[in-house]
Amino acid sequence: MTQVPRTPTATYRVQLEPGAGFAAAARAVPRLAALGVSHLHLSPLLEAVPGSRHGYDVTDHSRVRAELGGEPGLRHLAATARAHGLGLIADIVPNHMALPADTALNAPLWRLLRDGPGSPAAAWFDLDPDPAAGDGRMTLPVLAGPAADERHALRVEDGTLRYGDHHRFPLRPGTEDLPLDALLDAQHYRLAWWRTARTELTYRRFFTVSELIAVRVEDPAVFEATHATVLRLLAEGVLTGLRIDHPDGLADPEGYLRRLRRRAGPGVWVVAEKILGPGERLPAGWPVAGTTGYDALRQVDAVLTDPAGAEQLTAHYRAYTGAPPGLGGAWEPTERRAAHRVIEHELAAERARLLRTARRLCGPDHPTAALRTALTALLVALPVYRPYVPAGRPPSAADTALLATAAAAAAREVATPAERRALDALHDLALGRPARTAPATGRGTDPADFRVRFAQVSSALRAKAAEDCAGYRFTPLLSASEVGGDPARPALPPAAFHAHCARIQRDWPLTGTVYTTHDTKRSGDVRATLAALTEHPRGWADLLTEVTERAARAGVPAPDPHAAWGCWQTAFALAPSPDPDRLAAATLKAAREAALRTTWTEPDAEYEAALDRFVRGGPCGPPGYPVAALARELAPQIRANVLGAALLHLTMPGVPDVYRGSESVYRALVDPDNRRPAGPPRPLPDAAPDMRAGGPEGGLSAEKLWLTSVALRLRRARPEWFGAHATYTPLAAEGPTAEHALAFCRSERVITVAARLTRTLAAAGGWEGTVLPLPPGRWYDALAGDLAEASAPGEGAADGRAGYRGKTPLGRLLAARPVALLVRADGF
Q: What's the pLDDT tens digit per position in 306-334?
């Protein structure tokens, strides 16, 4: 039996769902072991809402999900994986549970609804005890319409309250025989129209998803109850590591992670799904290996994007769409306007609760209207998910600076002296200090409640406003509007990439890295394809003019130019033949998230029908044929980006995670498209495919699969070259086109070389006169041989094969493919 490494060399994300559970994952183990990963990264595996395809809607923390095969199935998977030298990483969800239609599925919630706020189960959930939020009862926004209109669908059956065919709720003991109206009034909860969640919600939820109720894992007893099964599976060796979903929603992320580390043990690899904003750093005190890796995704995307071309695309976008600055014409005003919309609509209930707390803590000298304006301005001004002001300790320098910057920006948004005074008071509270104008008593309100609540609302606001709403409004280059991205600065120079990698190797060498995930709006290969447009912005502008005219002549014009721009770009990424159903679904989701013409809660049926006709008759019909021609023209750039991104991801500092199916070319759009089955896996190649002249999609898939296999096997064979004690050294090319080569050396043993911006490279004369100085030694390209040589490099591996020394001409090194993975053939 092969030994399982304690720290992964690379992970492979497995999406578990009914019909594709532990048994299916076990069948894939031999291939994934041969691919070269060291661990399987499993999506959530505890009991969830029946039929759930993602598992983040947990209903029971005490059981492994039966629909996936239960604990016996998980143990069989672990044994199969262990026999092939693989471990299991589990994705766990500490922030929330499901509020399912049948509330009996969530036992603590059922007890709370039955027994009321005095129940011990009340400690589980983040509830709003303030009567100002309603009549003191827990509001459940589950009705399809106003309560009076839905009364006919309510009935008592088998000692429970039923609504329709699927919803079931407990009854307060002693109320079973009351008339229906009196029975409803007597419960500890109130059933309400789903639209009331905007303003009358009495529990914290996950972002704006009312079906996911927040859990108070800061309570030690709740922590133990929600983590006992996972911790037991870790202790028994069934699991070997953890991915922590959305720690930013927790009251005290660092405190939670410290408790988890104590209970899990020091040797367990743990990464946190922390989305870092531009320039933001992971808090140094977090006892984790690092993030799940969206910061790496940002670096890879940006270094393969042409800055001048991105600027030209943005100019074409503004001319084509006519979007004003705040409604898609420029990133910062669009983001700010989106944040105002979200906090005043979707998160109005969360703001109201925070405002009530602030009003009690600040005293009567602050008018409610002034506090509301100042609170909104301060929340909107935060440029990252949240601050992390600790309880009982001074805030960090980073949080102090963050809140000072936000307060200064918010000060420009408030107009009156009362609003400025309110802003000062709220700034104090967010820092964990008493408000300067606080009353002698806060009427029993804990000052920490505002600090904690402010950070939690901030994280929800950032996710919904920046990632979703604004990210779908400002769309010059769709690949830049990604989780963890910076749409205002879509391109970065190689020096910025190297600086990031050097810092990660120094501070977080075992952090996770990703390029495609279950949450990316577009898979890595889609984004790499889109980035190629920045190398030919004039071609894109000409294409858009042509296809717009063709769609109009065909009688299928787009209902608005903003939707057309994004849809045509997406069609280009899926060329040569985008699937109408997939493209229509993604385009509709983009329109609803942007909330410019239609929304999830107020859909415009006429507009959406016109959008569907356009997608199917335009990009997916004869008017869209020229898109495939542009994709063929840019095929060399797409190939270079796809292979370059894959190699950078797999060899840069950190532990790479390969999303299911993305070892080959994987073109997926936003959820749920990116959760669809990846299709039958391609057989692993034994030797490098001959792709000197590029080739069709199947050829590029073969190339990417080969590259992925070589890189992963090399990582597994030589973990010390890439691990905690490895080194990262940038390598600078010399010559007229040096900036088109991105190269670095790991531990003086392996070198990554990737060509970038290859269209402008060709226009500048190619690699003529440009060389890459190599460190001392003889080097060979692992991508040019067979898999056995690439997996176990040594002195004899390069025998009979051309080696590289000294200043190597890049034209020779990159003649066969736009990437190279050089391994030292001496000194082992």
A: 999 999 999 999 999 999 999 999 999 99
Residue 265 exposure: Cα atoms within 13 Å on the Cβ side: 14
Q: Are strands 46-48 and 58-64 parallel, antiparallel or unpaired?
A: antiparallel
Token couple for 755: 């060509």
Nearest one of 199, 42, 40, 188 to 122, comparing CA atoms: 188
Would you call the peptide bond into 672 cis, given omega within 30 degrees of 0 as the criterion?
yes
Peptide bond into 576 cis (omega under 30): yes
Question: Cα separations (Å) of 471 from 467, 498, 665?
Answer: 5, 27, 25
Residues whose CB falls within 8 Å of the CB of residue 407, separated by 6 or more in sequence, listed in order: 378, 381, 423, 424, 427
Question: Which residues contact residue 107 at a Cβ distance below 8 angstroms, ignoring those fewer than 6 apart?
Answer: 60
Q: How far is CA 164 from CA 101, 113, 595, in A?
A: 10, 19, 31
pLDDT over threshold 90, residue 446: no
Per the DSSP assignment, residues forming a β-bridge with 39 are 11, 87
The Cα 402–Cα 280 span in angstroms is 10
Specify whether the backbone of 425 is left (phi greater than 0), alpha (psi in -120 to 50) or beta: alpha
Residues 235 and 284: beta-carbon distance below 8 Å? no
Query: Residue 235 — very low, low, confident or very high, per pLDDT cuts 50/70/90?
Result: very high
Bigger pLDDT: 473 vs 394: 473
The tokens of 611 are what?
A: 């959008």
pLDDT (average), residues 596-608: 97
Identify the pLDDT of residue 390. 86
CA angle, corner 72, sides to 71 and 76, nearest 5?
115
- Does the pLDDT value for residue 133 go beyond 60? no
Contact 666, 681 (CB under 8 A): no
Query: CB of 43 within 8 A of CB of 14?
Result: yes
Residue 746: count of CB within 10 angstroms of its CB:
24
Whether the model clears a pTM of 0.70, i.e. scores above it, the answer is yes
Side-chain-side CA neighbours of residue 127 (13 Å): 23
Q: Where are the beta strands (DSSP E) in 106-235?
A: 138-143, 154-157, 160-163, 167-169, 189-193, 205-206, 209-214
3 state DSSP class of 251:
coil
Q: How far apart are CA 19 and CA 67, in angstroms?
A: 8
pLDDT at 693: 41
d(CA 267, CA 261): 9
Average pLDDT of 283-288? Answer: 96
Tell which phi-psi region holds residue 176, choosing left (phi > 0), alpha (psi between -120 and 50) or beta. alpha
- Helix 348-362 to helix 331-344 angle (10° resolution) is 80
Q: Tokens standing for 243?
A: 């991915």
Question: What is the rounded CA–CA span in Å between residue 491 and residue 121?
Answer: 50
Strands 209-214 and 205-206, sheet pairing: antiparallel
Cα–Cα distances (Å) from 803 to 317, 730, 741, 785, 800, in that order, read 47, 21, 19, 12, 9
Q: Is residue 745 classed as helix, strand or coil in its secondary structure?
A: strand
Tens of pLDDT along 700-723? 999 999 999 999 999 999 999 999
Q: How far apart are CA 39 and CA 32, in angstroms?
A: 9
Split at pLDDT 50, 70, 90, the class of 439 is low
